[in-house]
């Protein structure tokens, strides 16, 4: 049994080891914006050729201690500014070298730093895979209540209900299993029982940015990263104490047709949150508390949600830190699975009208970062994620409950071997403990080893080779071992142009829900299948990213994924002629297409415009048909204007009508009018004002979502919200 | 040239925005139900035919509590919907065509009904004095009930019911 003292001793020794390795001088200074000399906060400063770096504080100041003597190169980067490189900065033993830098603003968002593509900090333009980033400002402007609201605006991503589909990788699996891996600060964050993404557990107010890697990423992340990875990165604890109070109130417009009205009262939703962050010396703490009430625009779809979140960070030295997180979600509400029929689109069938769901989910995670040598970074991460949810379907089952615990531990290192090789390697272990009325009692787990070498063969050419071996068992007939290799190249022929190509394998272990669900889904019996095998993919991508002067970027990519043993829930008729649902390895499939995106920054960044278009052709090669729930065209565009203290924005998304759905659910009369669906056209508008110039640190935003009240479904039998009006107030103190 | 491209993109975006004015899905408003003709024979005296209704049961009613409780429990549907005596099916006629739909009846749902009758109120107590006067069957000269599945947005035709007041079907409740 490892005691607390032993853990602290190890951490102390690691910190001591790091200090013993440290020697030399230091570099310090201030970073400002060119022109108005305004201090820049959060600038990333990297000592080139090492894993050492820092960020500027609230005064724009920075200090990197223990820098080896001799000439050094420092790289300064932050979103919205041109990268600055300072070469031949002379550092002397025992002395501090002063280096002030001023950075030039660029109208488009460049120099984004991402961490998901290679498990280490990289400039977005150097990444050899397609990756999109949505930052806290964009999330806040849209008044996203949960993470999935924010994901709806990322090119190549669309939602089917609460499930994420990246470039056609996923359809709809009834909440069981996900072909997209979600990470919270780089740590796997899928539920242990259903293996799904639970967005509600992460308070949006604490999100710094969301990175979305498109395409198979199992060579670094293992199971579930078949279609891509969503990494939710929480906000750092600010240097200066900060209290943020936020409240919003929303109103659903009345339904488009009188016969859809089911309530005489207006339907509202509202939420309040308060967060506090404080740093005292080397110890920082952030607390967040929120409540959200939603009357719902559909009958028996109401929600009450409470979130608590805490983050602490202890800096043992400038290069060693320990971060601990705790999050808790309590939620209860009704359940709306599908409509009664299109004439009563906002009312569930009578049998669902008393269904309710209650969830208590919490997690504790920790991450230790230590610079063991100038070129060697060590990271250890762990999470315990507990899920307890249950539902009552009064008419049929009594209460069903599922308890699950997911534990994941990972140790990894980044080793900058020399100017050519950057190695990333690590090992991972996981354990899932499930006790559920619907799935039974199961204990599963496994381990993984992975390694990757990024070879900078020249200034223009980087080759990345990597592989990961996973061994997993969840109690299926055969435990699974899987080797997932990948190769990627990034070629920068001239500054501003990046050509990339990659090939990699992906795989996904079936979730406990898919293998062992025994009960009823959509009024049909489900039968477990212990013979399920993992599904596998081989993905290819090639793309070009091009800067357009200093006011735009353009990206185009072609992609293809070949899937084997794709797991799909299918309707099967037994020998006694009784239909039932079972998850089986039934399909060989191919998804291919292309994606383009454009970002423009005009009038010195006062006008930001972006668009993204993705074409997907999702073939079911076994049935010679199209895959279910995959739209072939996904188009997004948005416009953001900033005029002094006023900002305004507009978003529009078009998603083509999906070609195929679960037709059998309609043919059997289970979901009446379930085949009624249309292309999706949704326009959202917003206007905001930052009143801090008046001396009152308050901002006001008004959102008008689904402004043209387009009535559409993402998921069979589920009408999406009508026009909504939202007023948000935020105060920062 | 670049400005023209930008203007084109902005214009395209605005056009797409306005195309969102299409309201998308709408109610279908096609009723569901069944229709047919009721043929009457051997009318009794008026004081023993106080009311006539078509009642569709999901299951064969054996509940002694009778039609009303079955109706209240949601397992039966009634036509015509006006429950006053004036809302009865036509009386003392040879035949009466009808269309019993989700819009023109009480409680009719898209599901299967296994026992469909013309119910007769033969006495003064409107809670208890009901009996079947005719039953829907596809087997001539029998009282074996035949099922009818109400399909979404469709009117199932030819659900004809013979009512012979001298030869009523057995009373199940």
Our count of helices of chain A gives: 6
Give the biggest beta sheet of chain B.
4 strands, mixed
Global structural class of chain B: alpha+beta
> What separation lies between the terminal Cα atoms of chain A?
45 Å
Number of strands of chain B: 10
Report the portion of residues of chain B in β strands: 25-35%
Helix content range of chain B: 10-25%
Averaged pLDDT of chain A, please? 87
- Order of H and E elements of chain B: HEEHEEEEEEEE
How would you describe this protein?
The complex is a heterodimer of chains A (733) and B (173). With 733 residues, chain A is mainly beta. Helix content of chain A is 6%, strand content 56%. Chain A contains 6 helices and 44 strands. In chain A, the strands form 7 sheets. Chain A has a 22-stranded antiparallel barrel. A 5-stranded mixed sheet of chain A has the order 11-16-17-14-15. In chain A, a hairpin with a 7-residue loop joins β40 and β41. The longest helix of chain A has 18 residues. Chain A is globular and about 85 Å long. Chain B is an alpha+beta fold. Chain B has one domain. Helix content of chain B is 14%, strand content 29%. Chain B has 2 helices and 10 strands. In chain B, strands 1, 4, 9 and 10 form a 4-stranded mixed sheet that branches. Chain B has a 4-stranded antiparallel sheet with strand order 3-2-6-7, with helices on one face. In chain B, β6 and β7 form a beta hairpin. The longest helix of chain B has 18 residues. The interface between A and B is medium-sized, with 37 and 22 residues.
Question: What is the gist of this entry?
Answer:
The complex is a heterodimer of chains A (733) and B (173). Chain A has 733 residues and is mostly beta strands. Chain A contains six helices and 44 strands.
